[in-house]
C-alpha cells in the first residue's frame, strides 16, 4: 500500500503475515464500492483525499469505522443493565495493560469478514494498519495484563462488569538502551487521538481534598491548609466479549480542575501562575508509577490511588442509586473488586459515603461495606505491601483518617477480647504501624474492610495464610481463598498465533476459543506424527515471523533454527534474570573450552523494565547487555550462542515473541512469585517451561505431568528453612563453574571499558544472595543440559509441546472469572438481547 506523506513507511511486508492469516487478505487492487464508514471518517475527521491519506489516518479511520459498528451494541449493553438492574461487578485497578486494540476488537466482534471486504475494496493491508497503533500506556506488568484479561473474560461470559482505572497520559515510560543502560523516556501514546475512547465530560465527578497543588520550580508541590477540588474526567473504552454479544466498559479517569485558568493572576502578568493549579492537577494522571525514591513521588502515588477510588465510587454509587432507593441492597447489586492494595482506600471512602452522605449508622454502614468489597492480594514480599504515612491522611483526607482509626479501635477490641494474652498479635494486626513515623497498613485495611481475600495461585494463597497475613487469616479464616490466575485465549492464542490456532481448530473444532478446557482433547494426538508435524510447522512459522519482525523493527538478527529461550518480565532480583545470565556465562566458558561439545544452538532473549529507582535491577540490565555484546562478538561461539535484550517490553512485542518461543524461563526464587501469567501464555503456545516450584507453575506442571516440565531448585519450604545458615560463599568455594563465572565477571571481562562496573553484582551474590541464585545455579545448569538433549530429538520435543498445549485449558481467565463470579461476587450472566 502507498505510504502517505509525513509518516514513516509501514513495516516490511514479511512481518505482516499474522493478520493476513487471520483475515485472509493483504494489499490488493482497489475494486468495488468504497466503504462508506471508512471514507466518511477520512473525509470528515481528517479532511483528506482518500488517495492521499497517511498510514496513521487510514488506521484511525478504519478503527473509528469499527467502533461505529460496535456502538449500537455497546449502547444496548448499557441499556440492558439499566433495565434489568442486575448485580454489577466493578473492577478497580491502577493498571490495565491492554496492548493494541484493533486486532483484538475485530476478532472478538467477529468483524473480520467486514474488515476483509473493506481491505479489499480500499487496497489496505490490515496488519500495516495495526502497526500504526501504539500500545496503550496503561500498565506495566502482570498485574495490569491480568486486569485486561479479566475484563475481557467478563464481557465474553456476559457478566455485567466495568473496569475503573486512570488515563495515564505518558504511561510508565518508554525504555531505550544507551551503552547497555536503561534510559527512561516519556511514552507519549496519546500524542495522536485514540480512536477507541469516548470522552464523557458531562459525567465528570468532583474529588475534594484538604490541600491543593501547584507546580513550583518544575515540581508538583502540595499547599496544605488550602482545600481544593479536582475533577475526574471519564474516558470510556469498549470491552468486547467474544462474539460481540456483550460490550462492557473500561472507564479511565483523567485529572483536571473546575477552573483551568486564573484570570486575575494572568491579568497581573503572572502568566505561569495563572495556569499553575490546573497544571498541577492535570499532572496527577500524567505518569503510571512515579519515581518512588522520593517523598514527592510517593505522595503523588498516594494521591493517584485516592483519586481513582474517589472517582470510581462516586460513579458506581450514582449507577446504583439510579435503580435502587434502598441502601440495604447495595451488596446484592454491587460487587467491588480491589486489584491489590492500590484501591484499598475504597474501604474508608465507601464508609464515608454511607455514614456522611447517606446518614447510615456505623454498624449498618460497616456491614454493607464489608459485604460489597473484595480484595485480591498479588504479593508475598513484605516490602511490596503498601504502607502510607499517617500524616499524609491527616493532611490530605482527614475524614478518611478518622474512619480508619475508628475501624482500628473496634478491630483491636475484637482481637484483645479473643486473644487476651499480649503476644504482639494486636500490634501486628493493627491498621496502624507504630514507630517514629506512624503508617497505615493498606493490606490490613483491605482484608479487614472486605468479605474476601484471595491469592492468585495455590501456593501463594497457602503462604499468604501461613506467613504474610497469618494473624489476619487466623482472625478471619473464612475470608481467605484462592483464585488461580488465567489469561484470555482470544488474544494469547487465537489472535497472536493464528497458525497454531488453525492447527488446533482443524483437530478438535473451534469450541476451545470460549472453553479452553476442550484443549484436553488434544492429548491423544501427542503421539500422532501428522499432528506433531503440524504443531512443529506452526512453531517454525511463528519463529520466522518473529525473526522477520525483529529484523524490520530493530535491525537485530535471530536465527529461527536456534532454540529460542525467553525470559520476559519485570526486572527484579526475585525473578532472577541474574540466575539466567550467570548460567549463560557458564555456557560461554564451556563453549570456549571445547568448540566440539554437543550443544544445540540457542538464542537467549530477555525483555523487561526496571523501576527507575531500582539501582540493582538497572545494573542487571546493563550486565545482560554487556554479556550480549561480548558473547555475540566472540567467533569462538558464533552461531551456537546468542544473547539479546529487547528494549521496551510491551504487549505487542509479546504477541510476536511468545508464539515463537521454545523455552519459557519461570525461575523465580520459590515462594516469591504470586502466580505468573506469562508462564500460561507460553504453555498454551507450545513452549516448554524451565522453572522452579513456584506460583502457578506448580499447578501447570501438575496438569501436564512433571515429566513434561523442567523443574529445578529449592522448594519454598527449603528456601525458608535455609535462611538461618545459607552461605553463598560455600558454592563459590565448592563449585568450580560457579567460581569461574563469578571470577570472569569480577575481572571486568564483560566491562573492559568500565572497570568495576559489575562489582556490586558480585558483592550481592557472595555477601548475601537473599534470592538464592548460587544455591540454585548448579541445579539450573543440569536442568538445561536435559533441555538441550531433548531439543536434539525434535519428535520428542514436539510431543511434550503438544502435551503442554493440551494441558493448558485450566489456565483461561474465563475459568478464573467464573470462580470469582460464583464464589466471591455472587453474580450471574446478564445476556444482552
TrEMBL record:
Its EC number is 2.4.1.1. The keyword Glycosyltransferase applies. Coiled coil: none annotated. Keywords: Carbohydrate metabolism, Glycogen metabolism, Glycosyltransferase, Phosphoprotein, Pyridoxal phosphate, Transferase. Its cofactor is pyridoxal 5'-phosphate. Gene3D superfamilies: Glycogen Phosphorylase B. One of its GO terms (molecular function) is pyridoxal phosphate binding. One of its GO terms (biological process) is glycogen catabolic process. The modification N6-(pyridoxal phosphate)lysine is found at residue 681. The keyword Glycosyltransferase applies. It catalyses: [(1->4)-alpha-D-glucosyl](n) + phosphate = [(1->4)-alpha-D-glucosyl](n-1) + alpha-D-glucose 1-phosphate. GO terms for cellular component: cytoplasm. InterPro entries: Glycg_phsphrylas (IPR011833), Glyco_trans_35 (IPR000811), Pyridoxal_P_attach_site (IPR035090). It comes from the Bacteria. Belongs to the glycogen phosphorylase family. NCBIfam families: P_ylase. Phosphorylase is an important allosteric enzyme in carbohydrate metabolism. Enzymes from different sources differ in their regulatory mechanisms and in their natural substrates. However, all known phosphorylases share catalytic and structural properties. Allosteric enzyme that catalyzes the rate-limiting step in glycogen catabolism, the phosphorolytic cleavage of glycogen to produce glucose-1-phosphate, and plays a central role in maintaining cellular and organismal glucose homeostasis. This is Alpha-1,4 glucan phosphorylase. It comes from Nitrospira japonica.
